[in-house]
Design goal:
246 residues, Rossmann fold, 10 strands, binds adenosine-5'-triphosphate, branched-chain amino acid transmembrane transporter activity
Length: 246
């Protein structure tokens, strides 16, 4: 084998996280976390409440600092970059609780997502038709206030707003939390269509087994450390019972 032949091609990784340790004050929350997301794949992080999943996503977004380790996005180290720089590089974030601005219209909530494009908003006022193909309900609600939408509609708006930034990686924190089953299926299929249509990668924190199974790969977290990982096709009953609230 020649030296130039790649064994594991790191450039095929959208995100690579290596040896992350995060603290809240003196509480050690994330412990030696390693995780990688191949380009075009969906990876799901599972684990019981309070194990550190949201802390991990916030660390990737730059909202929390890690004491050790490095985060590579498309092979570039990003740990020292601010959250807005990471967003403009192509990491779209849909936080837990959605963070829709309640007294702003659906249209303006969507347009805010343009700030994450590499050159910012720059007077751009257009919403691409693909957004409405993915989430038809939003088209009928453009002039409504964000706060007047149902939980499921707000979740769709939050994902759509993240897509307005044209991310290469979409980070979703429990998108189905508190949402009725019929809408969960809609959100799940929209995420699958996003991946098929755009080839972007997804990092998902999720409790619903059906949604988890849509991912290519899972990582299971316990007490802030990764304790199991593999293909979602190999998710055993034992792993499901241990790490998902089913
Ligand atoms: N701002 C904070 N200050 C101190 N401790 C915190 C803070 N936020 C979270 N924690 C603690 O860090 C731990 C991990 O929380 P985190 O929200 O990351 O867990 P999670 O796995 O996302 O849980 P959930 O599914 O309930 O959101 C928990 O013990 C939590 O109490």
């Amino acid at each position: 084998m020649s030296n130039s032949q790649p064994t594991i091609n790191q450039t095929d990784l959208m995100l690579r996280v290596s040896n992350i340790n995060v603290y809240y004050g003196e509480s050690h929350i994330l412990r030696n976390v390693d995780l990688s997301i191949p380009s075009g794949q969906m990876v799901c992080l599972i684990g019981r409440n309070g194990v550190g999943k949201t802390t991990f996503l916030k660390t990737i977004m730059g909202l929390l600092k890690s004491r050790t380790g490095e985060i590579f996005f498309q092979d570039r180290p990003i740990s020292k970059l601010t959250p807005d720089k990471r967003a403009r590089m192509g990491i779209g974030y849909v936080p837990q609780g959605r963070e829709i601005i309640p007294r702003v219209s659906v249209k303006d909530n969507l347009l805010l997502g343009l700030e994450a494009q590499p050159k910012g908003r720059k007077g751009n006022e257009s919403i691409p038709e693909e957004i409405f193909e993915l989430f038809p309900v939003l088209k009928t609600m453009l002039s409504r206030m964000g706060g007047d939408l149902s939980g499921g509609q707000q979740q769709q708006l939050a994902i759509a707003r993240a897509l307005m930034g044209k991310p290469r990686l979409l980070v979703l924190d429990e998108p189905t939390e508190g949402i009725q089953p019929s809408i969960i299926i809609e959100i799940e299929s929209a995420v699958k269509r996003i991946i098929e249509a755009t080839g972007i990668s997804v990092l998902l924190v999720e409790q619903h087994l059906h949604f988890v199974r849509q991912a290519d790969k899972y990582y299971a977290m316990q007490k802030g450390g990764i304790v199991a990982s593999g293909s979602t096709e190999e998710l055993t009953q034992e792993v499901i019972q241990q790490f998902l609230a089913v």
